[in-house]
Amino acid sequence: MEEKQFHLDEAYYGPSIPPPTRSYRYHGSNDWCDDCGSCCCLISFLLQLIGLAVVTVALVFLIFHPSKVKIHVTDASLTLFNFTTTLNYNLALNITIRNPNKMIGIYYDSIEASAFFGDRWFGSVSLTPFYQGHKNTTILSPVFEGQELVSLGASDLSVFNSEKSAGVYDINVKLNLRIRFKLGNKVKTWRMKPEIKCDLKVPLSSNGKSGAGTFEATKCHTGF
């Protein structure tokens, strides 16, 4: 049998190579992260963290049954509220904070009370931080006193003069708080910043007497 000879100048590609076969396998969580990249892993981690936070909050409500803290301005004394080019004022408040919870204490790490005429700020007072125990009522007594350069437009000035004639002023007080909850004896939450707003109608008084009636206790609006 004659053996076939190949010349060097002829192209020889060898035997044909079969196409590769694709294999499929299950990708575990680590493989999925490798394929998808760090961004997907971060999203997965954040979703797990959110889920854990939701479960934690649900457990807190089931175990401790927290009730909203109740805040009222129970007394207000306004002995000076006069405007020329500056606003001269003397306002004293009693603010009660009631924690109705049986198993939750509250750390008030930072407390600042700010007073406004309409939307015009005229004074702020920093109060002493404190811890409020279970089913406890605390009284805060901020005093706003001094003078402040306040710019009143024609509309604001008209409102001021109208309230001056009536002897009762609309004054808004906001409490800027930084608080933490203590659950039971050991667990403490992260720091929160609730929004507290008290819309007051305060009569101007002189020598402890007011010709426009007495101040009525006012409930403050609380939001987280």
Write the layout of secondary structure elements.
Elements: H1 29-36, H2 38-64, E1 70-83, E2 86-99, E3 104-117, E4 120-127, E5 130-132, E6 136-140, E7 143-149, H3 154-166, E8 168-183, E9 187-188, E10 195-203, E11 205-206, E12 209-210, E13 218-219, E14 221-223
Antiparallel strand pairs: 1-2, 1-13, 2-6, 2-7, 3-4, 3-5, 3-8, 8-9, 8-10, 10-14, 11-12
List key phrases describing it.
224 residues; alpha+beta; 7-stranded antiparallel beta sheet; 5-stranded antiparallel beta sheet; NDR1-like; membrane; Late embryogenesis abundant protein LEA-2 subgroup domain-containing protein; transmembrane; LEA_2
Q: What does this entry look like structurally?
A:
With 224 residues, the chain is of the alpha+beta class. The protein is 21% helix and 45% strand. It has helices at residues 29-36, 38-64, 154-166; strands at residues 70-83, 86-99, 104-117, 120-127, 130-132, 136-140, 143-149, 168-183, 187-188, 195-203, 205-206, 209-210, 218-219, 221-223. Strands 3, 4, 5, 8, 9, 10 and 14 form a 7-stranded antiparallel β-sheet that branches. Strand 3 (104-117) and strand 4 (120-127) form a beta hairpin. The longest helix is centred in the first third of the chain and has 27 residues, at 38-64. 16% of the residues are buried. The mean pLDDT is 82.
